[in-house]
User: Which sequence fits this backbone?
């Protein structure tokens, strides 16, 4: 099955090139020290479901990663290896990750792993982050309406 990657925004137009220094240097916010700054996208509809009715009126975009060099974390062993390679204190040394990769994708999200790996549980669902989005393209899918949210909530 093809992975469906989406980005939800308050803005009708999203410009990947205008994102600030967080895209070239994935420094962590103090509040979310286990998550890097960057362009975030969701896989499938988990994020939309988590927003519920708050998603109504927002804009949804289909994300195409192109040739973006990501660390794909698709199983517990890959998460453990990534964590061992890039661990820094309680979290991950995102600057070291950025020296090798343009971003990271967790798919599928594994709740067992989330209970064992501090940084991983903060991501909450299958998703990804890119801090060098030069190869990423977005296709507008339109505004999210009540029917779309209802369909997603019924499906999860």
Assistant:
């Amino acid at each position: 099955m093809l992975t469906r990657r989406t980005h939800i925004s308050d803005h009708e137009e999203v410009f990947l090139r205008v994102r600030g220094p967080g895209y070239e240097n994935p420094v962590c916010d103090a509040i979310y020290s286990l998550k890097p700054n960057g362009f975030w996208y969701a896989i499938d509809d988990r994020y939309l479901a988590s927003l519920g009715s708050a998603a109504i009126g927002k804009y949804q975009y289909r994300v195409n990663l192109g040739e973006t060099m990501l660390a794909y974390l698709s199983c517990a062993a890959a998460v453990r290896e990534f964590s061992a390679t890039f661990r820094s204190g309680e979290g991950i040394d995102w600057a070291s990750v950025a020296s090798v990769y343009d971003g990271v994708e967790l798919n599928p999200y594994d709740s067992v792993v989330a209970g064992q790996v501090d940084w991983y549980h903060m991501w909450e669902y299958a998703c990804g982050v890119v801090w060098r989005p030069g190869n990423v393209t977005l296709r507008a899918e339109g505004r999210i309406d009540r029917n779309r949210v209802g369909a997603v909530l019924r499906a999860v």
Summary: The chain has one domain: 5-155. The CA atoms of residues 1 and 108 lie 13 Å apart.
